[in-house]
Amino acid sequence: MSDSFMRLLPGDSSQSGMQPSNLVSSAAFTTEDHTELDQLYFATGDESVLTGVWECAPCREEIDSYPVHEMMTVISGSVTLTNKNGDSETFTAGDVFFIPKGTQCTWHITEKLRKFYMITS
User: What is the pLDDT of residues 2-20, one digit of tens each?
Assistant: First the structure.
């Protein structure tokens, strides 16, 4: 575990060291662009806490039970979340939001999304 602070960079992949990620199934992408990138900045030894930057092309996923507690800040793009009751909320650049572990929702990226995240399991 680090005992110092760190700056998370929102820049493009050539500036921030983002690497390919595979959290989203190929079938979930809604355009021909299947780009998904991640830059992990911090992880505890047991990976129960993670923080970084994630970017993903437009996609739509039905999530029966969100696997972690996650706080996010949108850097760019747009995502619409719909809960099990059908209530929707759209988040764009500058918005900060939280999804509790176990939440049933639809995750719909409508414009390539880049976000800061902090995850706890």
Answer: 567 877 777 665 556 789 9
**Number of other residues whose CB lies within 10 A of the CB of residue 100:** 9
- pTM of the full structure: 0.90
pLDDT tens per residue across span 82-112: 999 999 999 999 999 999 999 999 999 999 9
Parse the chain into domains and list their residue ranges: 18-120
18-120 is classed CATH 2.60.120.10: yes
Sign (positive or negative) of CA dihedral 46, 43, 49, 23: negative
